[in-house]
Amino acid sequence: MPEQPADRTKELVLLMTQHQRRIFSYIYTLVPDRHSAEDILQETSLVVCEKFGDFRTGTDFAAWACQIAWWQVRAARTKFARSKVVFDDKVLESVAATAAELAPEQTARHEALARCLQKLNPRDRELVMTRYESGVEEAAQRTGRSMVAAYKALARLRKLLHDCVTNALASEATV
Amino acid sequence: MNDNERVELNELISALIDGRASTADQQRLEEMLAASDEARRFYVRSMSMSASLFEYAGEMQSERPEPANVIRVFRWRRMIAPLALAAAVALALVVSKVFVTTGEPGNGEEQPETVARLSGSKDCKWKGASPEPGDELVRGRRLELDSGFAELTFDSGAQITLVGPAVLDLHSAWEAELSRGTLKANVPTEAIGFRVTNPSVEVVDLGTEFSMTAEDGAAEVFVLKGAVEVHPQRAGHDAHGSVLREKQARRFAKAGDSDVRDRERKFQRYAAKIAVERLAHPLNYIRWSFDEGAGDVAGASSNSSTDAHFQLAQSGSAASRWTDGRFGSAVELDGVPALLAKLSGAAGRNIRSVACWIRLPADAAVSGAGPILTLPLNRSAQAWAEFSWNSLPGDGVVGALRMRSGFGTTVGTTGLRDGTWHHIAASFGQSPKGANKPHVKMYVDGRLEPFSMKASGRRKMDLAPEGLAGSLWLGGLPGSSLRAGMAIDELLVADRPMTPPEIRHLVLTNQIISPDVVAAN
Fold first, then answer.
1. Domain spans of chain B, in order of start
2. Architecture of domain B285-519
C-alpha cells in the first residue's frame, strides 16, 4: 500500500465503513453465496486500499469501489468451481447494471426493512433472524419446524418483507 | 411478470439464498433474469434485502448495545483477520484507534447479577466496602457486618435481618450462606423454598420466620413461625431432611445434632422485634384500572400529574371490549388490537417497573403468540420492552412470560395460558457500576420468576420499535395482530423498580403500599 497521509487514511476508513454494506450487497448479488461474497469483499477492500490514491474526494466512493468489486467478481469466477458460478457472463452483466441502477434506493430499503421486521410476529422474526445468524438448520430447530417447513416459511417471509419494504417506500414517496 | 411468475421467481431466489437451488432451478432463474428487467429488479432487491438481514442478524449477535455514535468498523467478522495480515498497517492502526476513541466497552462478559438489596440498617459497621441503604447487592457478594443490624430484601421476597458480628454470602435470590453470626429470616409464601446454608446444615424455608446462628462450624435453628426443612450436612447422613415446626429449635454440628441449650432465653431474644431504619422512596405511578366497564375510554389515574388514557374503540374496530376483570372490569383484546396510551413528558421516559393482570385463553394457539404490552423505558433507545408469552419451544417454557428488549430476551417458567388471571410484574433495576444494561426481574403472581432462557444481548435487536416513543401499547404495535384473545386489568407503570414487598402487596390488595408503611417496619 502506498504511503498515505493520516487524514487520507482516516477518510478511507470512514468511507469503507459507510459504504461497506452497499459494496457487500453488490458482490453478493453477483455471487449469491455468503462466504464467497465475503471473500471477494476482503479482496476488494485490499485493492481499494491500494488504489485509494486514485480516488477523487467528493466523487461517488461506493460506485468506484463497486467497479473494483466487479473486476474482483470476474476474477473470482475463473477460480470458482462450476458449481458456484450461477450466471453466465451476459446475465451477470445485466444483473450488475440493474444493481448499479438500484443503488440509490438501497439505504432507504435497508432502513424500511428494520421497521418491517418489527411487524413480523415473534416466531417468524425469530426464524428469519436465526436463519441469517446461524443458518437454516438452527432456525428450524429453534422455532420447532421441520427443514422443509422452514424453507417454505423463509420463502414466504422474504416475499412478505420484500413487499412490505416496497410498500413502505411507495407510501413515503406519495406523502 | 405475472403473479405466478413472481411467486416462482421468489421461490427460486429463496432456494438460491438458502443453498438448496438445483441446477435446473439455477437455469430457470437465469432464464427469467435474462428475459425480464422486472425480474432482475426483483432479484437485485431480494439479494440486497438478504445482505441487510445478514447485517441485522450480525448486529444482534454483538454482545452489547452500541451507543449511536459508535462507528462500526468492518463488522463482517471474516474481514478483520485478512486485513490485518495484509500489509495495511496504517489502516489497521486507524481501525484500532476508531475503536478506542469511540469508547467501546471492553468485552461482552456477563455483568454480575443483582440478587438482593440492602433495604434497612441500624448502626451498621461493615468490614470492607460498606453498602448503603438502597444499594443493590450482586450474586457472590460477601457481607461482613462488624456490628449493628442490616436488613436485606432478596429479589425472591425473602427478608433477612443480619445481626452483627456476622458473615453472610449471597449466592442467589433464593440462597444465602451464614458462616458466622445471627440472622433472622422472614419468608413470605412467594419465597417458599428460600434457603440458608451453613457447613453443618441447610435450612429450606417453608414460609416462616426463623432465626439461625452460626459459630465455629455449628449452627442453631429456631423456628418462630411456620416450619422449615433442615438438612444436616454431615458426610454419610442420609439425604432426607426433617421438618422443624413453630417453637422448635435444633443444634447442628459436625459431630451430630442435638437439643439447643438455654432454649427459652434464646427464643425470647430472637422473637424480639428488630427495628431498622428504612429508606422509602415514593413511587410515582400511572394506573389504569379499566373499571369504566363501558364507553370507549380507559382513563388513567396517577399520583403525579399525568393523563394517559387508552382509547378503546379505534376507528370503529370492535376488537376490544369490556369484560369482568380481576378487580372490577377489564378490557379484552382480540384480532387487531394495538391500544395506545400516549405518555406525556417524563412519564414516557422514566418507566422502571410495570405490573398488570392478564388472562390468556387456555387454548391460545402457539402460532397466535403476540405481544401483550410494549413500552419505552428510561434513557437510551435500547431501553424498551415487549412482553408476550413464549411460543418458541427452543427458548424455554412455552406459554411462559417472555420479555424482549433492546438488551436481550428472557423467558420465564410459569405457564400463563390457562384461562385464569395471572399477575405479571417486571422491574428494571439500576445496573451495577460500569455495566450499561439494566437488569430485569420478572414476577408472576408475586413470585420471582426463574428464567428458562436468558439471552443477554445474543438475540439483541437494538432498534426501538416504530411508534413506541412516549407511548404504551397494549396487544402489540400498530399493524400487528393478536390471533388469540387476551384480557388485561389493573395496569400500572412506575418510575422506579418496585421491590418484592411492594409487588406482593399489590398482588394481594391491588393497592400501592405507602412509603410510611414501608418505613414503619
1. 3-101, 115-278, 285-519
2. Sandwich (2.60)
User: Residue A98 falls within a domain, yes or no?
Assistant: no
Tell me which amino acid residue B437 is: K
Contact assignment for B98 to A13 by CB distance below 8 Å: yes
**Nearest-angstrom CA–CA distance, B418 and B407:** 29
CA torsion angle B2 B7 B10 B16 (round to 10): -120
Main-chain phi, psi angles of B275, to 5 degrees: -90, 120
Residue B465 DSSP label? P
pTM (two decimals): 0.58
Helix, strand, coil in percent for chain A, rounding step 5: 85, 0, 15
Phi, psi of B101 (to 5 degrees): -70, -20
| Residues in chain A within 8 Å Cβ distance of B461 | 117, 129
Residue of B445, B471, B287, B450 whose CA lies nearest to B359: B445
Say whether pLDDT at B223 is over 60. yes
Residue A137, all three cell numbers = 438448520
Length of chain A: 175
Question: pLDDT by residue (tens digit) across A78-135?
Answer: 776 555 667 888 999 999 999 999 998 998 999 899 889 988 888 898 899 999 988 8
Q: What would the pLDDT profile of B478-504 be if each residue is shown by its tens digit?
A: 666 665 678 899 999 888 889 898 999
Q: How far is CA B286 from the centre of its chain?
A: 20
Indicate yes or no: CB of B10 within 8 angstroms of CB of A162.
yes
